[in-house]
Amino acid sequence: MIQLKTVEEIEIMKEGGRILAEVLFEVLDHAKPGATELELDGLAEKLILERGAEPGFKKVDGYKHTICISTNDVVVHGIPTEYKLKEGDVVGIDCGVYYKGFHTDVAHTVRVQKSKVKSQKSDEVDRFLETGKNALKEAIKQARAGNRIGHISQAIQKIVEGAGYSVVRSLIGHGVGRELHEEPEVPGFLDGSISTTPLLKVGMTIAIEVIYNMGKHDVTYSGGDGWTIKTKDKSLSGLFERTIAITTGEPLVLTRVI
Q1: What is the mean pLDDT of each run of 10 residues along the chain (258 residues)?
Q2: What is the CATH number of the domain that holds 214?
Q3: Is residue 99 part of a domain?
Q4: How many domains are there within the chain?
Q5: Which domain range does residue 210 map to?
Q6: How far is CA 126 from CA 109, 134, 183, in A?
Q7: How far is Cα 29 from Cα 36, in angstroms, rounded to an integer?
Q8: Alpha helix segments (H runs only) across the chain
Q9: pLDDT at 121
Q10: 182 domain-assigned
């Protein structure tokens, strides 16, 4: 059952989302060569607690960390380790906040580099990451009352596959609120007719996720930890996610830095 949120509840989620977005992008600023995945995890927890919120992922049974980190061929649910980031690594950080009874969820992928100044020369990795950002941007535009989940799915698939990459089929976005994962499911691909997918209504809060690979879409569990999922062909993977509220007008991005 899809849980519609009140205006007051969405305001709470907006505050939690602001906290989460601020934390995520501060952590990403520290994703430099030499930083370990565990150091980034510890920083995220510290920043969340300082802001009066709780790490949402620690409320998931069996998970003991604040972030999931996806380095290079890790797709999702990567457990932070002592691995030291290297120049050129592709790192996705997925993080959640629990604030006043509600969850928000966000993820972003970057290329590890010493300086914030981007080289004028763009390559295939840059194009890959820009594709994910664009897919998320266009998907969010579809998150309007009267549209359907399939409009979001179609937007993601069109951009990702149109650029020659693959949408992961076995991992999807989701509703979010009092629980980290709620109905409806929000796939990054369209399977069947848009008309058969859930209708978007005012008060719905969803986590739109672009989960895609540079190579084929097949994934596999790796490392024996029961969490880490990698690309089967060892190709790079990307992850971009925002928590969105459906309103009477434009989509409201709850995990946006003010």
Answers
A1: 97 98 97 98 98 98 97 98 97 98 98 74 91 98 98 98 98 98 98 96 98 98 92 98 98 88
A2: 3.90.230.10
A3: yes
A4: 1
A5: 7-113+122-247
A6: 11, 12, 33
A7: 13
A8: 7-29, 37-50, 124-141, 149-162
A9: 63
A10: yes
AA identity, residue 62: G
The one-letter amino acid code at 134 reads N
Position 78, amino acid: G
Q: Which stretches does DSSP call E strand in 56-193? A: 67-71, 74-76, 90-99, 102-111, 166-167, 173-175, 182-186
**Helices 149-162 and 124-141, packing angle to 10 deg:** 160
For residue 237, being part of any structural domain is answered with yes
> Would 33 be classed as within a structural domain?
yes
Residue whose pair of structure tokens reads 């890790």 in the numeric block: 74
Q: Which two tokens stand for residue 194?
A: 């848009």
Tokens 């060569």 locate to 33
Tokens of 175: 């509703």
